[in-house]
Amino acid sequence: MPLLDVSKSSSHPSDDEQKIFQYIDHHQDTFVQSLSEWVAVESDSIQPHLRGNITEMVKIAANSLQALGATVELKNVSSQDEPYGQNLSLPPVILAELGKDTAKPTVCFYGHLDVMPAKKEDGWKTDPYTLTEMDGKLYGRGATDNKGPVLAWINAVGTFIALNMTLPVNVKFLLEGMEEAGSHGLEDLLKENEGFFSDVMYIVISDNIWLSNKKPALTYGTRGNAAFFVEVECCKKDLHSGSFGGIIHEAMFDLVALLDSLVDSSGRILIPGIYDDVANVTNEEMKLYAPIDFNFEEHKANIGVKEFLYKTKEDILLNLWRNPSLSIHGIEGAFSEPGIKTVIPSKVIGKFSIRQVPNMNLPTVESQVKEHLKRVFSKRNSPNKLTVSMQVAAKPWIANIKNLQYEAARRAIKTVFQQDPDMIRDGSTIPVARMFEDITKKSVMMFPIGAADDGEHSQNEKINRLNYINGAKVFASFLLEISKLHSGSNLMTTS
Ligand SMILES: C[C@H](N)C(=O)N[C@@H](Cc1c[nH]cn1)C(=O)O
Ligand SMILES: [Zn+2]
Ligand SMILES: [Zn+2]
Question: So which residues are the signal peptide here (predicted)?
C-alpha cells in the first residue's frame, strides 16, 4: 500500500512552476477580461424567465474549453424542471475532456455556471453584471460563486497548453448550470454517464470559500439541504384591506404563525425529532477543530453583525458545520416593494431550508416538517388551504482527508501561499459532492480559492484579484503534484 514520504514535500516552486507562475502573472489582465465577459451573463438559475441565459453561459464555457483543445459534449438533461411545474427545460451540462494518456491519472473538475439573483437595487455599490475592480477586489455576481474558480481552473490548464508543456494529468470537466437551484437533473445525468467517470481518479470542486480572509483552506465536508415551500391560500385574488380586513382569515396570519413555529431566538429548531439522527460529536472530531484559525472579529466585521449566537470557536464551528440549522428565506406573494400597499395577499408561499448533517435522513426530515406544520396549522382553526412541499433534497458530504489528492493540494498551497491550509468543513451545500461519491465512488475534494469575505449570495460579491490569479497558480501546481505523487518518486511502499 503506498504511503506518502512527507519529507519530499517542498514549498519552493520547481522550474516548471516558476515558468507557469510567470505566465499567469503576465496574463492576469486577460484572465480578468474573461471573468468580466462571464460575469456579464446574468445566468440566474432561480428566476425561470432567465433560463435562456444559462444556456448562453454554457455555450460560452464550452467555447473556452474547445479553445484549449478539449473534446466537449453538451449533454441534454432529460427531465423537466419539476419545482416550477411548467414546461421549463433544464440547461445542458458540459462534459469535456483533455488528454487520454492511460499512463496518467485523470482529474475531473466540477463547477457551476449559474448564479444567484442580483439587482443593483438590492444594495450593490456597482452593477452586479459589470465586473468592477476596486482596491484589488473584482466585484460582480458570480465572481467567486462560481465563475472565478471555474475560470481559474481553465486558466491553469490553458497555461500548460500556451507554454507547450505536456499536461501532467488527463483533465475532465463537468460544468452545470443549475447548482444554485439544487442541481436539478444532475443525479440522472451522473447515472446516465457513469462511463465518463470510469477512468477518473480524483474529483475536484472549487465552489466554497476559506474560513479566513487571508489563510487558505481545504474542505472535507459540507452540509446538505432540505428546502421547503409552505403555501397558504385564503381567497381567489388579492383584496383591499379596508374592504375585507377584519372579516377574513388572512393567509399571511397563518403563514407568519407557521414560520414562527420553526425556530426559537437561540437558533434551536423547534420541529419535533429533527435532532434525533444527528451524529454525536467524537473526541477525534473535536481535535480537528483545535488547530483551525478562526478570527471572531474578522468574521463579525465581514458581515456586519454585533455578535454570534455562540461564544466559542468550537461552538461556532460545530453549529456551522455539523449541526443542522434552519433559515427563513422569504415570502412569495407578499408585498415587498418600497411604500405601503394596503392589500391582503390571496396566496403566500413561505420559503425556508434546513441544512442537513450526518446522519439525518431526508425522507424522515420531510415528514417531520410536514407533520409539524400541519399540527400547528390545525390548532389555528383556519379555513385556508395549506400545502407543504420539499423543493430541494441534498445530502451532506464528508471526505477522507487521507486521500492522496488532499496531500497534493496541501503541497500546492504551500508552494503558492507559503503556508499550510486550514482543514475545514463548510456549512453550505454542493449537492453534487455526495452524488459523485454515491454514484461514481471516486474521491472528492473541495479546493476553495475564495476568501471568507467574498460575499457569496450577498450584495457586492467579489473575488480578490490575487485569489483569482493565485487560484490559477495553485490549480496548476496541484496538477503537477498529483502527477509527481503518481510517478512514484514521492511514494514509499510498505513491505
Ligand atoms: C456552496 C455553493 N456555492 C452554494 O452556494 N450552494 C447552494 C446550493 C443549494 C442548496 N440548496 C439550494 N441550493 C447553497 O448552499 O445554498
Ligand atoms: Zn456555488
Ligand atoms: Zn452559491
Answer: none
Is the bond preceding 146 in cis, omega lying within 30 degrees of 0? yes
Give yes or no for residue 430 CB within 6 A of ligand 1: yes
d(CA 451, CA 304): 16
Q: Ligand 1 atom 11: the closest Cα is on which residue?
A: 182
First to last CA, the chain: 8
**Could you tell me which of 378, 101, 371 has the C-alpha nearest to residue 228?**
371
Pairing of strands 224-233, 325-332: unpaired
Closest CA to 112 of 170, 186, 165: 186
Antiparallel, parallel or unpaired: β 347-356 and 325-332 = antiparallel
Residue 457 Cα: closest atom of ligand 1 = 5
Q: Are residues 415 and 447 in the same domain?
A: yes
Cα–Cα distance, 394 to 224 (Å, whole number)? 5
Closest CA to 105 of 307, 403, 375: 403
CATH number where 152 lies: 3.40.630.10
Residue 335, domain extent: 225-278+323-394
Segment 59-75, tens digit of pLDDT: 999 999 999 999 999 99
Residues 27 and 135 grouped into a single domain: yes
| CA separation for the pair 462, 464 (Å, rounded) | 7
Amino acid at 257: A
Element (H, E) at 354: strand 347-356
Of ligand 1's listed atoms, the one at least distance from the Cα of 146 is 3
Residue with cell 494518456: 101
What is the per-residue pLDDT across 389-441, written as a single tens digit (0 to 9) for each?
Answer: 999 999 999 999 999 999 999 999 999 999 999 999 999 999 999 999 999 99
Return the ligand number nearest the Cα of 351.
1
The answer to whether the CB of 176 is under 6 A from ligand 1 is: no
Distance 116 CA to ligand 1 centre (A): 9
Catalytic residue among 17, 179, 180, 426: 179
The two beta strands, 137-139 and 462-464, are: antiparallel
